[in-house]
Amino acid sequence: MSFWMCSDCHYIYEAETPEDVCPECQGKCDFYNISCYIPECGGPGNIDMRLVEQVKMGLKREAHSL
Ligand SMILES: [Zn+2]
User: Fold this and answer.
1) Of 16, 18, 44, 60, which residue is the least packed, with the fewest Cβ within 10 Å?
2) pLDDT for 45-60, tens place per residue?
3) pTM for the whole thing?
4) How far is the CA of 15 from the centre of ligand 1 (A)?
5) 53, 58, 66: which is closest to 18 by C-alpha?
6) Which residues contact 12 (CB under 8 A, 6 or more apart)?
């Protein structure tokens, strides 16, 4: 499972693949994979807060987009 964050409303949910429509704002938003893949944030099963901050700040190209 991966964690996904809506670029519009910053809603976070866990799923294998991103939804077509955001469960929160119902928009066709971009979803960013904010799953942790490095030991610094606890590894798989955790959220990478650095990526969360990047999405919130609008540095979307820095986050892992699909
Ligand atoms: Zn949304």
Assistant:
1) 16
2) 999 999 999 999 886 5
3) 0.83
4) 15
5) 66
6) 3, 4, 5, 6, 34, 47, 52
Instruction: Give distance in angstroms: CA of 40 to centre of ligand 1.
Output: 27
- Report the separation in Å between the CA atom of 9 and the middle of ligand 1, taken as the mean of its atom positions: 4
Q: Which domain holds residue 18?
A: 2-65
56 C-alpha vs ligand 1 centroid, how far in Å?
12
65 CB neighbour count, 10 Å cutoff: 13
Q: How far apart are CA 44 and CA 61, in angstroms?
A: 22
First to last CA, the chain: 15
| Cβ atoms within 10 Å of 13's Cβ, excluding its own | 16
Q: What is the distance in A from the centroid of ligand 1 to the CA of 60?
A: 15
Looking at the structure of the chain, the number of domains it has is: 1
